Amino acid sequence: MPKKEWFAEWFDTPYYHILYQNRGEDEARGFMEALVSKLNLAPGASLLDLACGKGRHAITLNSFGFKVLGVDLSLNSITQAKLNENPNLSFDVHDMRQPVKGRTFDAIFNLFTSFGYFDTHEENKQVCESMAKMLAPGGRLVIDFMNAKKVVSDLVPFEKKRVNDIEFNISREYTGTHIIKTISFSDKSQKYSYQEKVQAITKEQFMELLRPYFVVDFTFGSFDLEDFSLSKSERLIIIATRK
């Protein structure tokens, strides 16, 4: 049986959610409020949260009065997210490399470095084409990614992090194309090891990826939508419009 891609394996374990349990709702709400103010979306607009995890951003967007679909490849995450469903908020298991069949959206949100998970640049192009197919002309796209240049320059090779009585040993390396994080730990006398492997995509590479389908309107460097700085910003946040 072929080995699962790293994200299909790691994101579907309970340990992923234990390690990253500090991701807060207040931060998500503030970020979504700032984005929505920039997007000028119509009341009741149809939105897609692409690679939504357990749905914290989708839930927040729905609370603003939008109709939201959240999709993610992790069955574990979607099972949790579905507990929050209502007539205008739904969740489904879906691979972001393919369009959601029969659906068109006014805006797509791809948040918290949920891009570049794949081995090849061609798959990045596939995701961009998929997003374009799901947006009508004039539809809006938001990508929230890491500032790869700063992450690489500030890379911490190793750290230990204790959460819920589990000691996670985290090592990081940059291969020249990918930032690889290896997470090793023991729980109930069982040893585990998982990887996160994300392409270090630069602002310029994103511009090239998006150019066939989108016009880039803004680039920001923080959840507060501060101007992007290549050397200082923690995030690369792109707002674009479908051609």
- Computed over alpha carbons, the radius of gyration is 18 Å
**Poorly predicted residue ranges:** none
Largest sheet: 7 strands, mixed
Strand content: 25-35%
- How many domains is the backbone divided into? 2
Number of strands: 11
Spatial strand arrangement across the major sheet: 3-2-1-4-5-11-10
Order of helices and strands: HHHEHEHEEHEHEEEEHEE
By CATH, the topology of the largest domain is Rossmann fold
CATH architecture of the largest domain: 3-Layer(aba) Sandwich
Share of helix, binned: 25-40%
**SS field, number of helical segments:** 8
| Shape category | globular
Structural class: alpha/beta
What is the CATH superfamily classification of the largest domain?
Vaccinia Virus protein VP39
Please give a handful of descriptors for the protein shown.
about 30% helix, alpha/beta, 2 domains, Rossmann fold, 4-stranded antiparallel sheet
Can you describe what's shown?
The chain has 243 residues and is of the alpha/beta class. The protein has two domains: 6-148 and 202-242, 3-Layer(aba) Sandwich (Rossmann fold); 151-196. The protein has helices spanning 6-10, 14-19, 25-39, 56-63, 75-81, 121-134, 148-153, 203-210; strands spanning 46-50, 67-72, 89-93, 105-110, 135-146, 158-163, 166-174, 178-187, 190-199, 214-220, 235-242. The strands form two sheets. Strands 3-2-1-4-5-11-10 form a seven-stranded mixed sheet, sandwiched between helices. It has a four-stranded antiparallel sheet with strand order 6-7-8-9. β8 and β9 form a beta hairpin. The longest helix has 15 residues, at 25-39. The mean pLDDT is 95.
